[in-house]
Design a protein that fits this description.
Elements: H1 2-8, H2 16-28, H3 51-75
Length: 79
């Protein structure tokens, strides 16, 4: 199971050689994501959100509001 969580917590790199090296480093380390864990002294695998995560989540929520707004606007055209 250690290899699964190490792979899931290792960011993918566009360069295959670097990506493979990052995975091998994660596989060989027992503390592969301890510094990234939200609760470092537990078995929970929640990682701290990065700026990229927060920006992506915010843009996704905004996109949902845009779609809902368009839907409401289109539904009101026939009145």
């Amino acid at each position: 199971m250690h290899r699964y969580y190490a792979k899931m917590n290792t960011e993918v790199d566009a360069d295959p050689a670097r990506d493979s090296a990052n995975l091998e480093a994660a596989y060989s380390s027992t503390d592969y994501a301890k510094d990234r864990k939200l609760f470092p002294n537990s078995d929970l695998e929640f990682v701290k959100p990065t700026a990229k995560d927060i920006i992506g989540f915010t843009l996704s929520v905004l996109a949902c509001f845009v779609v809902l707004g368009l839907l409401i606007w289109i539904a009101g055209i026939g009145r």
